[in-house]
Specification:
This protein has 323 residues and is of the alpha/beta class. The chain has 2 domains: 2-173 and 219-244, NAD(P)-binding Rossmann-like Domain (Rossmann fold), CATH 3.40.50.720; 189-214 and 248-316, UDP-galactose 4-epimerase, domain 1 (Alpha-Beta Complex), CATH 3.90.25. It has 12 helices and 14 strands. The strands form 4 sheets. The chain has a 7-stranded parallel beta sheet with strand order 5-4-1-6-7-8-12, with helices on both faces. A 3-stranded mixed beta sheet has the order 9-11-13. It has a two-stranded antiparallel ribbon with strand order 2-3. Strand 7 (116-122), helix 5 and strand 8 form a beta-alpha-beta unit. Helix 6 (189-199) packs parallel to helix 8. The protein binds nicotinamide-adenine-dinucleotide.
Amino acid sequence: MRVLIIGGGGFVGHKLALRLIERGTLRGEDITHLALADIGAPKAIEADFAVTAHALDIADREAVDAILEEDWDVIYHLAAVVSAQAEEDFVAGMRTNFFGTFNILEACRMRVPTPVVVYASSVASFSTDVPQPILDWTATTPQTSYGTQKAVGELLLNDYSRRGFIDGRGVRLPTVVVRPGKPNAAASSFFSSIIREPLQGEPVMCPVATDQEVWLASPRVTVENLVKVAEIDSADLGGIRNFSLPGMTITVQGMLDALKAVGGENVLGLVDHEIDPTIEKIVQGWSSRLETDVADKLGLDRDEDFERIVRDFMETDMRPAGA
Ligand SMILES: NC(=O)c1ccc[n+]([C@@H]2O[C@H](COP(=O)([O-])OP(=O)(O)OC[C@H]3O[C@@H](n4cnc5c(N)ncnc54)[C@H](O)[C@@H]3O)[C@@H](O)[C@H]2O)c1
């Protein structure tokens, strides 16, 4: 089993790589080669099988063709210019999220045997402009360039699968919280910062009202679901290859209550509030209430408890004091 993670140096890609290395198998076969590709070659990771790291710009068609010259049984496409950056820089978003995705699909079209392609779409392909809750078959009506680029990728993935060029699975990720490290250019980044920074002893600004809802999932459950999604029998997917991953709906206040319950009053005191109209507008356009019938029928996992998500972050990802 040969697995390629494009975007393998990112938050989700790195965690997925660690999980695949821990499992050692995918789709019932031993993994023999795991390749991580990203705009800069990701850090090497130790494993019992070959793990290679590659610098790859997916907007460069020749470079994509070159890496896909090799046979990959499963390709995860997780590379993206994320939401706020794609909104600020239209060309950068189109270049990676649209042309990059197209390049990957086109390179896969030339491959025999047909690879399984798992594509990370986003809840941002939906909007609050249609009746809620969002169902798997609700029309995608994105209100950002990022969401539009993701939704176009979904349509292409479906058609490339229908034609037998790939065995595609497009999953709309909820906002994944708590992201470790530094804030990123996603408009949703603060959902992680308001938990991560105070627990690490740093002040943080919350840019939206505390009654703002979000549809989120933990890194642990997201990665577990990405593994399961690659393992689904294509016959169980039928003609609709895109669906939403399970998440939980919670308000910012609910998140802060969990922060206080786990970290205490002093930690909560590090959170200050000032509305950022740009972030608020983007986030208000995202649906926070989804029904995930397809994922539920396929047996995918769901977080139930935000306090557990906070505790998981403290155990696995929190920066040690003074670091
Ligand atoms: N994390 C979330 O909350 C979330 C929510 C919904 C959807 N998603 C999607 O899931 C995927 C993974 O998200 P993440 O949080 O790990 O993001 P991330 O930003 O941490 O990782 C994405 C990676 O893509 C790489 N990349 C960007 N442009 C590239 C290019 N032209 N060529 C090659 N690599 C390029 C970046 O260097 C980065 O390492 C993304 O597609 C994202 O849109 C994430």
